[in-house]
User: Which sequence fits this backbone?
């Protein structure tokens, strides 16, 4: 039960940080591609620090869909902003996109391929 709760809060956290990073980048006039990168880094590097402090391999370096969900959510934000959708809707839609992709990936066990061609031991 605790593991599911932590997963849910982690997923909500990366969604919020993705939206915040992209929004701030667009607000200061950065290129949209840079904004997606900033949002993804903002969301993912907190988890990297957490995992390093817990002496685990950071989740971003495993096969789980983590940064990919943030990238897609950031792209949704940039596209909706380009079409001048209300900012409140943009934040909610792109945040839910991150949450849905990450949750679906875990539920349906969708993983990224391993570059070494070996199965993950965890």
Assistant:
């Amino acid at each position: 039960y605790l593991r599911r709760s932590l997963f849910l809060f982690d997923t909500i956290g990366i969604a919020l940080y993705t939206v915040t990073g992209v929004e701030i980048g667009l607000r200061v006039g950065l290129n949209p591609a840079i904004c997606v990168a900033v949002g993804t880094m903002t969301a993912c590097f907190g988890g990297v620090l957490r995992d390093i402090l817990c002496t685990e391999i950071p989740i971003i370096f495993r096969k789980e869909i983590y940064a990919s969900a943030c990238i897609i959510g950031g792209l949704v934000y940039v596209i909706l902003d380009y079409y001048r959708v209300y900012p409140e809707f943009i934040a909610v839609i792109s945040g839910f996109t991150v949450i849905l992709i990450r949750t679906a990936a875990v539920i349906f066990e969708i993983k990224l391929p391993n570059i070494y061609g070996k199965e993950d031991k965890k």
Residues 2-107 form one domain. The first helix runs from residue 2 to 27. The chain has a mean pLDDT of 91.
